[in-house]
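Late entry, written up from scratch paper. The run itself happened at the end of the previous shift, but nothing got recorded in the book at the time, so transcribing now.
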Amino acid sequence: MLIDKPAIKFIIPFILGILIGKIFQISPLVLVYVIASISILYFLTRKYLGNIYGIILLYPIIVLLGLLKFQIDFYYREDNRVDNFINQNKLVELKGIIIDQPTKKTNYVQLVIKADSLLTNNGNYKISGNVIITIPSENVTSIDPYEYGQRVRIKSILLPLTSARNPGDFDMKRYLNANNIFAKMYLEDEGNIVIEESCAGFSIIGLIYSIRSKIARNVENDIGGVEASFLKGILIGDRSEISLDLKESFINSGVMHILAVSGLHVGIIVLILISLLNIFNLSDRVRFASVSVFLIFYVFLTGSSPSVIRASIMAIVVLGALIYQRKINIYNSLAIAAIIILLFDSRQLFHPGFQLSFTAVISIVALYPKIIKIQDIFPEHIQENGYLKYFIALFAVSFSAAIGTLPFTSYYFGKISIIGLLANLIIVPIMGLTLAFGLIYTIMSFINAALASIVAETTKLFSAILLYFVDMFGSLKYAYLDVSFSFEDGIIYYVLIFLLFSTYIKNFIIRILICMLILLNVYVYKDIFKPNFAEITFLDVGQGDAIFIKSPKQKYILIDAGVKNLYRDAGQRFILPYFKQNNIKKIDLLINTHPHSDHLGGIPTILRNVKVNRIVDAGSKEKSEIYSDYLHLRDSLSIPYSKKYYGDTINIDDNIRLYVLHPGVDILESRNLNNHSLVIKLLYGERSILFTGDIERESEIKISGRYGKFLKSDIIKCAHHGSSTSNSEEFLNIVEPEFAVISVGANNKFNHPSEEVLTYLNNRKIQIYRTDLDGAITYRTNGSYLRMVNWRD
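Output as recorded:
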């Protein structure tokens, strides 16, 4: 079946090797020895036993090559790489070359520097790796002085990249590492960056960036506004100025794919080029070479995204097959594109753009011929209608792509567009016209400014119409569903799609019945596959507390919800995205330990966006806008509410119970709200966790005297963010924790956690985890074992 598809025979085991490499870290040197040994065995086998036996060894070699490629791309780290020199408190001088087009966004300007020299107090070092430089927009007069190839000198503090802080967060560090960026610098103004040398001579990349900059300036000058930001995205792949709200509208309306430079763009360019080249009566081979060279140029012009690389390679392969009269196989062409991309960088396999682009094309090729048959339900004279044929074909393409990419769009965007099919029928034709006029305008802007300005008006009109429909569809009440697929959901989904469209079972009714039977079995036996463990996550919400507990029977408890101030609402910024990523639609129990803003702050946002079945606090009051908002929402939403004091218990599951250890009614007379904090012990089988709110030593003494050895717990959430006013040595001696979690903001003004407390913990060999250093901290327990989960894997 794969005899005439050599690229497919290579790419499948190669991808398998990359996936294995993602799970296991193996020394590249060991892999080289193993590959060399099996290769020798392969050639000996072929020579003495024949090709059939040799082929058995060929596939393991390809798997190992994929494994080796990923190990090198992901784990290899040079000793002089720039992130090895990070010291957040030291001013350094970095030298390097600008290797990307400067990007201007609303609030800041960014440059990417290929670093080669670093001057510190300890000496001058030769370094490698790229650094991203950020300067506030108001302090940058113009980005024009900064060009590709310039050598610059920068004085600032070298900083680490930001990793994902909570499960489901976008991991900026991983994304930038995939682009060979390993550190960052912030500059207050342009005075800290000096251009030492201008661009050194002519370079192709420099020319491409120069053309890209000119196109961006022309679009901004001739078109302007939100239309210009959109057009720069679809013409040169620069989406940096498209607002988050507009991107959200594209996602909601199910047309996010049109922002990616991909097959539609390449198809239109090929048609334009071939039409122009036909005027000169050139040979087929010259036309093919010309189109191929231009497509390679276009790939670099638009930022070399996986989608445009894939589309360009496929176009070149298909055109080459036509010119040289070879049989075309789309799957083999796709495999060639994937091989080229992954040989350059195997990490692209895990890039959303790569996954969505290739899945969409595979889905269209596989499903379109089956879905297009819906036109057979119309009478023959209606089928001959050209307009109807067009819209049915467009529907079949859009539906095929939507079916194939649904698990990925759900996973990456946390939603499934309901309106997408209808939106695509209207928006994609307008997009085709917008793109065609946009490309014509781009060409004309280099030839005749007067004619270009005329085309610009038409392009702007079509852009405005397109954006109007995007906004309209995206803002409809039931435009989308908030659904995030898990890996298991995706597997089940693709099995069902395979069965539904399979030709192995001829009878369509039987296929539907099999799918329904699978779904029924999944529903009936779903509880068997549910985890039998509780999961406790200390979310990283900065200087505040937010703890999420998931019981084995899928009961959800939230203890506090972080801070709300002028700059941040932890509920909006951290907790809701976490809920969305994990498909959490309700909270069974919401507990507020005390009404300080760093614990209560995000709760109003949670109440407005998530169904809460029950609220518990200690009845403490606070004169603040946040507390008033909390009371108003609690009462207006008629959420069941109760006060809890020491001696009370809360049953969660059969084997999980919360014991309230503090406060008593008497302590509520105190003016110190920290000592009003609810202190709760979670007990599940043999394992326990002590949540201490912000209690101080006065309350620790009371609790210790009242409960003694019952306080002993496997994990303690250190009180008051590790403050020295809490976490006394005597209290820690009674609790005897194995792990201590400190929920604290990075570089906070309170200097939390206290060095004194850290010393206490270290002296007792208690393992310390901090949200400012480690991000969110997750534990799992089945009541017997207790282990920390590395959610970043």
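The chain has a mean pLDDT of 88.
(Scratch paper discarded after transcription.)
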